């Protein structure tokens, strides 16, 4: 099988000796929407720039459609990049900006004009085609950058935080547009972001990076519900990570002895767990009970706590509880279930969760 | 002090600044209208006249005051300034482009370039004269002096372009590459139009600095004098208001040059706009 993009043990070391990307492996099939997600400085943008050809590859191989690209200069790669600041050519009109990549290819004028017209229409830019970019809004400039990058029909479109400079409402709208556009064109998108909501909403698979390394490559739902590493557990969603030691198995559940009691969760995939592990409990999975409530039969995961803070945002109640060992835990609940005022600060409660919703991962 | 007081103070300060800047020039301009040939370079004005302007162009009856020996010198200075401007600007732009990336020895080379504008001109001129004599090279305004003018003005062009590139967004170039535009074409069609105002400023610097240059040229130019040398030469005999008349004319020329610069700037903006409109049609 020929992949659109293959990164084989790709590494990047800067001239001063600092490693920026370490042993990056990824195979992307045609039409996939991949997000590189991680905190700033994790190497996600560097990896994108290596794919585009702006940064040299220090070790490993990069292939696009089976062809080795390590030493191919950016202008000869079948990639096209969308920049966070859009990087439009300020001395050219919108139409000239969009058509410039085709001019260089020596395309016939009529063919070029037809292609430019089509992409301008697709992105709703016909009315501003003769304007200069500096007079236009952020959303418009974003679309121009997209049109300019897509009109040259790249195999892979690289997007470096393309929504970062937009305000929240616009970001949401363009996010939807982007997804529809990508599906209708069938072009492979590699999307760099530090916003997990964007990555979760848009991508087919998410590559979570931290300190130059790939932490996990998974579809969004799996990434959210079954993190592989403590970093992913902390970075994605609102999880509580409890460290402990494997005590044994009960059916599918793994029983873990922690500092606050014996608790259980599900092992993640085929990973065998022995010795020290982390138990990851998502905020949404935790149920809150009044302390004197009778424990439901078979509820194993029972942790005593005291409510510290409760805050209602829309229909979600965000609660913070303090455990006996001093650790604070985030909880989320629908307001219809826990009306504001049910758990004033200081209320003793117990927390429980379904073992199937918690994940056992290796210790740090 | 209250706000209006500060405003008044700043106003006075600005007015004084302008007086000191233009005062000498205004005095020269007034004295250039002194009557001739008997009127000297001092107040009071005996009678208003354009005698010294006519004298410059040889339109007055012969008198004991020799005409300013400037026609050849003016040509030399202009030619030298244009040559210097072209070479220094090309060097400045390309050197600044090279300095956008750190390379081995870039720090040392930076100071070596900038040294050209900091070393005392008289010493460099003298040094050049000695080197030329030792090596048996003839000294000419278009040879030895030209080299020194480039060494002197290149750092100015270089620093101007360095500042321009400092504010230049390299992602625009990367965007072009990623669209399939080769680097050389990217430089011509994307980078250069965007840095062009800076290039104009670098040209203006190089031209005016070279046109005015005295100390380096003094020893390095050999037999044929440039304009500043020729004018200075006349001072050693006696100063007549014809020098002032000439000063007024060269100042007007400088203003014309600045005007050209402004027009060129305006044109480059307008041309871009016109291209946009053509595209639309």
TrEMBL record, chain B:
It is found in: Cell membrane. The chain crosses the membrane at residues 12-33, 73-96, 108-135, 141-165, 190-211, 243-267. It holds the Pfam family BPD_transp_1. Residues 74-261 form the ABC transmembrane type-1 domain. The keyword Transmembrane applies. It comes from the Bacteria. InterPro entries: Bact_Polyamine_Transport, MetI-like, MetI-like_sf. It is a multi-pass membrane protein. CDD domains: TM_PBP2 (cd06261). Gene3D superfamilies: MetI-like. Keywords: Cell membrane, Membrane, Plasmid, Transmembrane, Transmembrane helix, Transport. PANTHER family: PUTRESCINE TRANSPORT SYSTEM PERMEASE PROTEIN POTI. Belongs to the binding-protein-dependent transport system permease family. CysTW subfamily. This is ABC transporter permease. It comes from Shinella sedimenti.
């Amino acid at each position: 099988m020929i992949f659109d993009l293959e990164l084989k043990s790709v590494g990047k070391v800067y001239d001063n000796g600092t490693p920026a990307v370490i042993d990056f492996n990824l195979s992307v099939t045609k039409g996939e929407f991949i997000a590189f997600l991680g905190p700033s400085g994790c190497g996600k943008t560097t990896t994108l720039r290596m794919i585009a050809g702006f940064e040299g590859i220090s070790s490993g191989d990069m292939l696009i459609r089976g062809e080795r690209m390590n030493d191919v200069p950016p202008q000869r790669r079948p990639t096209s990049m969308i920049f966070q600041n859009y990087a439009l050519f300020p001395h050219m009109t919108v139409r000239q900006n969009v058509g410039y990549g085709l001019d260089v290819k020596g395309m016939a004028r009529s063919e070029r004009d037809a292609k430019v017209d089509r992409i301008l229409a697709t992105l709703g830019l016909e009315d501003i085609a003769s304007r200069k970019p500096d007079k236009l809004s952020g959303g418009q400039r974003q679309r121009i950058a997209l049109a300019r990058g897509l009109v040259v029909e790249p195999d892979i479109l690289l997007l470096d935080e393309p929504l970062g400079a937009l305000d929240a409402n616009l970001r949401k709208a363009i996010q939807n547009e982007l997804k529809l556009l990508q599906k209708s064109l069938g072009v492979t998108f590699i999307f760099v972001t530090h916003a997990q909501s964007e990555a979760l909403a848009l991508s087919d698979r998410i590559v979570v990076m931290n300190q130059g390394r790939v932490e996990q490559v998974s579809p969004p739902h799996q990434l959210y519900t079954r993190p592989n590493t403590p970093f992913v557990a902390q970075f994605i969603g609102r999880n509580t990570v409890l460290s402990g030691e494997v005590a044994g198995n009960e059916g599918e559940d793994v029983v873990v002895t922690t500092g606050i009691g014996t608790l259980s969760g599900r092992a993640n995939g085929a990973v065998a767990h022995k010795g020290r592990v982390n138990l990851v409990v998502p905020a949404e999975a935790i149920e809150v009970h009044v302390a004197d409530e009778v424990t439901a039969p078979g509820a194993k995961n029972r942790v005593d706590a005291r409510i510290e803070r409760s805050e209602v945002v829309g229909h979600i109640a965000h609660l913070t509880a303090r455990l006996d060992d001093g650790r604070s835990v985030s909880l989320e609940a629908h307001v219809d279930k826990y009306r504001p005022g049910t758990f004033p600060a200081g209320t003793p409660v117990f927390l429980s969760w379904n073992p199937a919703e918690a994940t056992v991962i290796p210790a740090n | 002090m209250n706000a209006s007081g500060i405003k008044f103070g700043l106003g006075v300060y600005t007015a004084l600044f302008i007086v000191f800047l233009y005062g000498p020039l205004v005095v020269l301009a007034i004295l250039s209208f002194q009557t001739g040939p008997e009127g000297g370079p001092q107040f009071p004005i005996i009678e208003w006249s354009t005698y010294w302007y006519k004298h410059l162009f040889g339109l007055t009856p012969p008198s004991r005051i020799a005409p300013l020996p400037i026609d050849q010198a003016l040509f030399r200075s202009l030619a030298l300034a244009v040559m210097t401007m072209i070479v220094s600007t090309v060097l400045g732009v390309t050197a600044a482009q090279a300095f956008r990336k750190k390379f081995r020895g870039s720090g040392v080379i930076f100071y070596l370039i900038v040294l050209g504008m900091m070393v005392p001109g008289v010493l460099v001129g003298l040094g050049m004269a000695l080197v030329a004599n030792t090596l048996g090279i003839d000294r000419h305004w278009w040879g030895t002096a030209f080299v020194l003018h480039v060494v002197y003005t290149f750092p100015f062009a270089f620093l101007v372009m360095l500042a321009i590139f400092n504010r230049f967004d390299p992602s625009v170039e990367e965007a072009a590459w990623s669209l399939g535009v080769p680097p050389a074409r990217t430089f011509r069609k994307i980078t250069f139009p965007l840095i062009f105002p800076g290039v104009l400023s670098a040209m203006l610097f190089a031209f005016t600095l070279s046109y005015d240059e005295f100390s380096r040229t003094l020893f390095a130019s050999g037999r044929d004098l440039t304009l500043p040398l020729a004018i200075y030469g006349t001072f050693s005999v006696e100063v007549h208001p014809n020098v002032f008349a000439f000063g007024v004319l060269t100042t007007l020329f400088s203003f014309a040059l600045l005007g050209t610069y402004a027009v060129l700037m305006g044109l480059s903006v307008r041309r871009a706009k016109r291209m946009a409109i053509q595209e639309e049609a």
